[in-house]
Amino acid sequence: MSRSVRVVWDDALTSYDFGPGHPLAPVRVALTMELARELGVLDAVEVVGCAPASDDELALVHSRDYIEAVKRVSASGRPDLAHGLGTEDNPAFAGVHEASALITGASIAAARAVWTGEAEHAVNVAGGLHHAMAAAASGFCVYNDPAVAIGWLLSQGASRVAYVDVDVHHGDGVQALFYDDPRVLTISLHESPRTLFPGTGFPEEWGAEGTAVNVALPAGCGDSGWLRAFHAVVPPLLREFAPEVLVTQHGCDSHALDPLAHLMLSLDGQRIAYAALHRLAHETAGGRWVVTGGGGYELVQVVPRAWTHLIAEVSGHPLDPATATPKEWRRLVRERTGQTPPLTLTDGRAPEFSDFSAGYDPADPIDRAIMATRKAVFPFHGLDPLP
Prior knowledge:
alpha/beta; 11 helices; about 35% helix
């Protein structure tokens, strides 16, 4: 399915580190890359390095004043609460600009490879920092790397870019940065803002010409409901929008074990979503697919396995879920975290879902969420909200 795939990686990407005890621990990305390497996933891709995003590239979505503020914090390590740096979510640390700019540069490198045709698909698992705003850090995110990558694509002449965000938290930063730009379709499937940060992402937030799309799912939603909602909303909108490039954010904090949220997906359900987005990239965007990581705070049991499956799927060589985790990787997990590593790449689930086209159940909270989204945005795109 995939012709050429790049994985953008540099060990320095783990320098994005808010310190001991912070949920966004860089060990989760390091363990992902080690698991992918041990399983031979990286043998099927081209692994390339990256350079930090320049100030001009960051300014595609961020204000110049904010970039200078981040630099001052970076040099001094002192907080700047006016710009969201020095909070519990976003602690100030020396080197924060350099670390954040490198992650953003990795997403730009992925976008550049896809736009120029050097690669059909490209991945930055360290990226996906989707909460950062134009002039403020938010929700563990300092620079909004997926938004900068989209801004870069637009600056190169792209006229239609679609962004699909499957993180459990609303992709509020990306939505806000392109809310009035009909060239960018943002679709976010997330836990309801009534029960989870950042408190946005209602279906009524529809942006320019219905190009902001929000599927707000009830706490407790599992594989079958999530997949039903995904297929009821994402494929028809992508087919109608026909993007030149598909950009996706793959926070895996929708997993049942994630400590910061309340959805109940399994690793196996998430893997099905990756495959669906892969197919849609080929069907709707000519195969041009830029992929980032995102949230995910179960550092051993979930993130490394989920994103190893993601890289494998992007490469066109998906892994058998029953695959055992390598002994050397298990040893590394114990050494780095003191935790017991998972033994295989599956949660042992075989998710199934009923397609929304078979009918709408107004008594079902997931169906109500689906219909709220379809009623809000489908008419903008000439689509019928009803099944």
